[in-house]
Specification:
It is an enzyme of class 2 (transferase). InterPro entries: Glyc_kinase_flavodox-like_fold (IPR018193), Glycerate_kinase (IPR004381), Glycerate_kinase_RE-like (IPR018197), Glycerate_kinase_sf (IPR036129). It comes from Aquibacillus albus. Belongs to the glycerate kinase type-1 family. The chain has 379 residues and is α/β, with parallel strands linked by helices. Helices cover 39% and strands 18% of the residues. Strands 3-4-5-6-9-10 form a six-stranded mixed β-sheet, with helices on both faces. A five-stranded parallel β-sheet has the order 2-1-11-12-13, with helices on both faces. A two-stranded antiparallel ribbon has the order 7-8. Helix 1 packs parallel to helix 13. The relative contact order is 0.15.
């Protein structure tokens, strides 16, 4: 019996890798000779780099770069098993978790370190990039990244513009003469399911600014600042960044990647599955087990479980989902293509207990339904 395990993480509780191990233990209790393929997944957010590296037999490289507030941080980028493709999670160098809650300040936070990660990979000879946009501390529309790659931004009287999205309100012009010429040889795919545009009530500042520490007044200022940045870009490039779908991802990083690095915005799970050659790996499987923290309406719009189902349907492989909570009725589970879905939570409990016990409960629930499968096969 060949079983493929392909989950997302349960945010704040169990990683996709830990999920794979727990499910594997449950399977082997019932089918000790089962052939198990562990393929941890992600949708462009937390865990994308690590899971893609593990699923392809790649490696990770650590370098020192500038963090969101300018301090040195140790950040990693992934080299996939094809030895050609680099995966960069913006959160590694410019992430919210790198800043203590009381110090979070998107007015001055910069994406410079993400640009440094790209430059390190260019220096090592790589030209294919997957950029995961999620968990950023910044709201600078990728200006810091562009600076790290050689662009110069100027305020009044030709004074270099300070770091941070709040200072973009003072931008007079920029000079991209020294933008790294190797970027023209490189290709960039953005792995993100964020569809927000750059500015306005559904833009980067309004939707994501508050979770990064922005007050209502700062949100208003930041929105005006990146709108002004867009005006300058339109004036110099003839390109309007504001309507780009997904341009508001990661504090506007999406818009900068599309405009200056000719990046393509794609569904995060599609990029991940393509990059790890998921379709090839599941051929011949008897069962696929997937999972994520919650099975809800968001699952239907491009999350990991939906992505896995889309591929398994082609090969008529039955698929079972394990989740912390299930908010979809069976009609929608049928629409997804799931054989079944189970909550791992066996009893009423606190959120803290659910998070602590998740690995044990995943293992137990897996053993439970694998016993049903065994009895059915033997009947």
């Amino acid at each position: 019996m060949k079983v493929v395990i392909s989950p997302d993480s349960f945010k704040g509780s169990i990683s996709a890798i830990e999920f794979c191990s727990a499910v594997s233990n449950g399977i082997l209790r019932v089918f000790p000779n089962a052939s198990i393929e562990k393929i941890p997944l992600a949708d462009g957010g937390e865990g994308t780099m690590e899971n893609m590296v593990l699923s392809t037999g790649g490696t990770m490289r650590s370098v020192m770069v500038k963090g969101p507030l300018g301090n040195e941080v140790n950040a990693s980028y992934g080299i996939l098993g094809d030895q050609k493709t680099i995966v960069i999670e913006m959160a590694e160098a410019s992430g919210l978790t790198l800043v203590e809650p009381e110090k979070r300040d998107p007015f001055i936070a910069s994406s410079f370190g993400t640009g440094e990660l790209i430059k390190h990979a260019l220096n090592d000879g790589y030209r294919q990039f997957v950029i995961g946009l999620g968990g950023s501390a910044t709201n600078d529309s990728g200006a810091g990244m562009l600076k790290a790659l050689g662009m110069e931004l100027f305020g009044k009287d030709g004074v270099p513009l300070p770091e941070g999205g709040g200072h973009l309100i003072d931008l007079v012009n920029y000079d991209k003469t020294n933008l790294d010429p190797r970027l023209t040889e490189a290709s960039f795919q953005i792995a993100s399911d964020v569809t927000n545009v750059l500015c306005g009530p559904k833009g980067a500042s309004a939707i994501f600014g508050p979770q990064k520490g922005a007050s209502p007044d700062m949100v208003s200022h930041l929105d005006k600042a990146i709108n002004h940045f867009s005006d300058i870009v339109y004036k110099q490039e003839g390109v309007d960044m504001r309507p780009i779908i997904g341009g508001g991802a990661a504090g506007g990083m999406g818009a900068a990647l599309v405009t200056f690095l000719d990046a393509e915005v794609r569904s995060g799970i599609d990029v991940v599955m393509e990059g790890i050659k998921f379709e090839e790996k599941i051929k011949g499987a008897d069962l696929v087990i997937t999972g994520e923290g919650k099975l809800d309406e968001q699952t239907l719009s491009g999350k990991v479980i939906a992505g896995v189902n889309k591929v398994t349907k082609k090969y008529q492989i039955p698929i079972i989902a394990l989740c912390g909570g299930i908010e979809l009725d069976f009609t929608k589970l049928d629409d997804l293509g799931l054989l079944s879905a189970f909550s791992i939570v066996p009893k009423p409990c606190s959120l803290e207990e659910a998070m602590d016990e998740a690995p044990k409960w995943v293992e137990e629930r897996t053993e439970s339904f694998m016993r049903v499968i065994r009895n059915y096969k033997n009947s």
